[in-house]
Design brief:
Number of helices: 2
Order of helices and strands: HEEEHEEEEEE
Largest sheet: 6 strands, antiparallel
Strand order of the largest sheet: 1-2-3-9-7-8
Helix content: 10-25%
Shape: globular
Mean pLDDT: 76
Distance between the termini: 8 Å
Number of domains: 1
CATH class: Mainly Beta
Structural class: alpha+beta
Radius of gyration: 14 Å
Strand content: 25-35%
Length: 134
C-alpha cells in the first residue's frame, strides 16, 4: 500500500509541481501521418502514440511548460487534487483509480519536477506512460 501511495504522489507531482520497448505509431490526421500543430499555434510539434495507446512522446518547445506543450498537441484530462492538477487521461486513454497512473519522463528519466512547472527547451523529449501502481 505504501508503494502505491508513493507512486500516486509522484504521479500527481509530475503534473503539479527510460523508454522501454514500445511499438509506436504517429497519429493519423488525414492526408498527413503526423499530428503537427499548425503554424498559427504558438506551440508546434509532433506527438507519437504507443500502439496500445498507453504511451505518448513529444519534443519540447522553449519557453512553455511540458503540460502546456502536451495540451497543445492532444486531448488531456486533468483532475484536481490537494497536490495540484494530475493528468488522468491522454488522447482518450484514462487512468484507473488505484490501478494505474500517467507517469511523466524527461529525456528518458523519471521526472523530478511536475509537467505543470517544467519549462521545456527545444530538443527535450517528453514521454508519458500509463504505469501500474505497485
Amino acid at each position: 500500500m505504501k508503494n502505491k501511495l508513493i507512486a500516486l504522489v509522484i504521479a500527481v507531482l509530475a503534473v503539479g509541481g527510460g523508454l522501454g520497448s514500445y511499438a509506436y505509431f504517429t497519429r493519423d490526421t488525414g492526408a498527413d501521418t503526423t499530428n503537427t500543430v499548425s503554424q498559427a499555434t504558438p506551440i508546434g510539434g509532433t506527438i507519437t502514440y504507443g500502439a496500445d495507446g498507453k504511451s505518448v512522446e513529444y519534443t519540447g518547445k522553449t519557453g512553455v511548460t511540458a503540460l502546456e506543450n502536451l495540451q497543445a498537441l492532444t486531448e488531456v484530462n486533468l483532475q484536481s487534487s490537494s497536490y495540484g492538477d494530475m493528468v488522468v487521461g491522454i488522447n482518450g486513454v484514462n487512468s484507473e483509480t488505484d490501478k494505474n497512473y500517467w507517469a511523466f519522463y524527461v529525456n528518458g528519466d523519471y521526472a523530478n519536477e511536475g509537467a505543470g512547472t517544467y519549462k521545456t527547451k527545444d530538443g527535450d523529449t517528453f514521454t508519458w506512460k500509463l504505469e501500474d501502481i505497485q
